[in-house]
């Protein structure tokens, strides 16, 4: 019961930790996790299958590779013809490395792992033992992490422990809940402010020049980065204007609503801006005259608490000015 209370307190602390400032994934991040496992024991004949609650802490050396230290409490029941069933408990410490697939900001990141661990079991005074059994293991495993927010995740995985003492294997299925903080991976540097092309200096005898302007506002469906057919005409108008004034350039700015993690929205807004740029290039504008940048959900123009407001914020904007003589 004491162990269950301790594990419950650890899980509660992990959830509460998500309220302390902005946390991040990727290189430099620290992950803390509480987990529970079911073990199928094959390395000791008299041990029945057991359970293994524990905790771990890891550090991301890169956006994909982490080093993790783990502690778990092993609990088994041993069957013995002379002494009957006995409760067997022990401590298990491990050090392993995980490689994560995908990129920082993905909702689900599969992983593989490998490492070494050491276990110490008590109450094993039988079969030639004298009260404590110490063993070293090689560990391998795989699983996936589901990032519910930028800093809170759940994990499910399987592990296999190879016991060096006798060459046998134990197997585990694990679930866990954790938080991560302090990372710098996946952060996008602010884009440079748009710079308008300088208007040509008119000759002294020329009449007063008139500034002409074309603006673009393309809307997108939820979680999509595909330019809808009803927006092609607006994009073509901008392309025709830029072909009429070949010295002009433009910055295509992508935006999202506030649904989803910051890192995911940043990537989605960039894809939207890139999609509009591709249509402009297809319509005859040179790619080096169009700069695309995503701002995620940082620049709303409407209230994100309503459906209409979120629809207005799922957009790409662009503006071009030129001087007509």
From TrEMBL:
Keywords: Cell outer membrane, Ion transport, Membrane, Porin, Signal, Transmembrane, Transmembrane beta strand, Transport
Main location as per UniProt: membrane
Entry-linked SUPFAM superfamilies: OmpA-like, OMPA-like
Biased composition (Basic and acidic residues): 314-325
GO terms, biological process: monoatomic ion transport
Signal peptide interval: 1-24
InterPro entries: Bact_OuterMem_StrucFunc, OMP/PagP_B-barrel, OMP_bac, OmpA-like, OMPA-like_CS, OmpA-like_sf, OprF_membrane_N
Gene3D superfamilies: 2.40.160.20, OmpA-like domain (3.30.1330.60)
Residue ranges occupied by any OmpA-like domain in the UniProt entry: 207-324
GO cellular component: cell outer membrane; pore complex
Region (Disordered): 296-325
Membrane topology, record value: Multi-pass membrane protein
Keyword Membrane: yes
GO function term, MF aspect, one: porin activity
Compartmental location: Cell outer membrane
Record's protein name: Porin
Species of the source: Pseudomonas fluorescens HK44
């Amino acid at each position: 019961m004491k162990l269950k209370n301790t594990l419950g307190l650890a899980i509660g602390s992990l959830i509460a930790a998500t309220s302390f400032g902005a946390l991040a994934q990727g290189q430099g991040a620290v992950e803390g996790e509480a987990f529970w496992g079911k073990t199928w024991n094959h390395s000791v004949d008299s041990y029945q299958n057991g359970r293994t609650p524990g905790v771990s802490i890891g550090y991301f050396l890169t956006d994909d590779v982490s080093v993790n230290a783990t502690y778990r409490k092993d609990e088994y029941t041993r069957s013995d013809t002379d002494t009957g069933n006995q409760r067997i408990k022990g401590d298990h410490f491990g050090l392993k490395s995980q490689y994560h697939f995908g990129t920082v900001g993905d909702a689900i990141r599969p992983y593989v792992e490998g490492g070494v661990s050491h276990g110490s079991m008590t109450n094993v005074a039988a079969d030639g033992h004298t009260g404590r059994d110490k063993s070293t293991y090689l560990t391998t495993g795989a699983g996936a992490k589901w990032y519910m927010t930028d800093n809170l995740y759940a994990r499910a995985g399987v592990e296999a422990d190879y016991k060096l003492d006798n060459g046998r294997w134990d197997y585990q299925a694990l679930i866990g809940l954790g938080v991560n903080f302090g990372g710098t991976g996946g952060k996008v540097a602010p884009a440079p402010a748009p710079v308008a092309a300088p208007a040509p200096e008119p000759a002294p005898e020329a009449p007063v020049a008139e500034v002409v302007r074309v603006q673009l506002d393309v809307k997108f469906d939820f979680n999509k980065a595909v330019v809808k057919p009803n927006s092609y005409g607006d994009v073509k108008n901008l392309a025709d204007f830029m072909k009429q004034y070949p010295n002009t350039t433009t910055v295509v700015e992508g935006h999202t609503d506030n649904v989803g993690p910051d890192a995911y929205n940043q990537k989605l807004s960039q894809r939207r801006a890139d999609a509009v740029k591709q249509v402009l290039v297809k319509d005859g504008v040179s790619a080096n005259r169009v700069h695309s940048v995503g701002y995620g959900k940082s620049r709303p123009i409407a209230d994100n608490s309503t459906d209409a407001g979120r629809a207005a914020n799922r957009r790409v904007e662009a503006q071009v000015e030129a001087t007509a003589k």
